[in-house]
Each structure stands twice: as structure tokens, then as C-alpha cells.
Amino acid sequence: MQLLTTLALLSASASALPASTSSSPDLSSFYLVTSNQSTPASNSSLLPGVSATTPYNPNPLQSSPILLRLLAPGYNSLPTFSLNTTSSVLSTTLTFHNVPTTYSSSTVKSGEELQFVDTPVEGAAEGGFGVSEDGLLTVGKESKGWMVCTSQRGERTIWFGEGGSGEGCVSTWVHVVAEPPYLRKRG
């Protein structure tokens, strides 16, 4: 009887824990979200200060790099990202005028916005992207250093390293998650 009680308590305790972080996330299709907490959660909506992210073009009339901005609740869909672990390149596919185009992360530099370009990127062995065991996006195996800054156009964009030139920069953690936060369930 005591064994059954112990097993029941262990089972109840295990179900209250967040999903295991020791298993690697699926790096072929995931979402990027920001939070002011580095500890993962089983549901991305439970992360404190969570924000979804989405690529956007700050200069739509020019062929310029795509940036990553924060997105408030109320979106209809979000693009997924993938990580090539061989080249350490982060990618997303966006559709403009019914033409899908793959955008790849450019070389990330400290003090600059995270940028994506529509030309193939060879990759960066040093300073390339990765994912920590806790499901955090890393640069050169370092998950610290991400910032959210307000750009000249008023968008809250993702920067890496100190010295972001945007206004009101605050530190953040970039999580790699399977499900986006605050997504409306259609029923």
C-alpha cells in the first residue's frame, strides 16, 4: 500500500513539472520567442514577458535585410524557423506575391540587429547559431547577449550584444519553441 502511495505521489509530482529540456528541440521547424526568463516552460505562453517574433522588412521598397521584430497577441500566423546544424545558419521561408523565398541569417555581429538575407549564406563556424540544452538560441554557444531595442521606425527588434543603437534596449532570452505563444485556438 505504501508503494502505491509513493508511486501516486511521484506521478503527480512529475506531471506538475515542465516538459523535459534535456531532449533536443526539432530544429527543422520551430518558433522563436523572447522572454525575460531563461528557464524554459512546457507552454511558451507561460514564459514571463513572452513575445512572439516575426521577420519584417524595414524598407519594403528596397532589397534590404529582413529583421526580426516582436509581435503582440492577435496575429493570425507566424513563420517557422529552421537551423542547419552543419553551417550554423538560421533560416525562414516567407512568401511575397505568392513566391516563397528562403531567408538565411547573416553573420551575427555584436551590437547589430539580427538580420536575414535572401541570398544563400555559407555559414559561420565561429559565432554561428545553435540551440542550448535549455532550448535557448545561442551565438557561438552563448545564450546571453540578446537585446530588444526600439528601432528608428518604432519596431521592437532583436539585437545581439551590447551597444544596440536602438532606443530603450533591454536584455532578453530567445527561446526555440514548438508552439507559438498566445495563439488563438479555433474551435
Description of the molecule:
This protein is mainly β and 187 residues long. It has a single domain, classed as Trefoil (Trefoil (Acidic Fibroblast Growth Factor, subunit A)). The protein is 8% helix and 36% strand. It contains 1 helix and 14 strands; from the N terminus they run H-E-E-E-E-E-E-E-E-E-E-E-E-E-E. It has one helix at 2-16, and strands spanning 31-35, 51-56, 66-71, 81-84, 89-96, 99-105, 112-113, 115-117, 129-131, 137-139, 146-150, 156-160, 167-171, 173-177. The strands form 3 sheets. Strands 4-5-6-8-3-2-1-14 form an 8-stranded antiparallel beta sheet, with no helix packed on it. A 4-stranded antiparallel beta sheet has the order 7-12-11-13, with no helix packed on it. It starts with a helix and ends in a 10-residue tail after the last strand. Mean pLDDT is 79; it is low at 1-23.
CATH architecture: Trefoil
Overall 3D form:
globular
Biggest sheet statistics? 8 strands, antiparallel
Q: Count of DSSP E strands?
A: 14
CATH class placement: Mainly Beta
Category from helices, strands and their pairing: mainly beta
Gap from first CA to last CA = 43 Å
Q: Can you describe this structure in just a few lines?
A:
With 187 residues, the protein is mostly beta strands.
Index terms:
Trefoil (Acidic Fibroblast Growth Factor, subunit A), eight-stranded antiparallel beta sheet, four-stranded antiparallel beta sheet, mainly beta, 187 residues
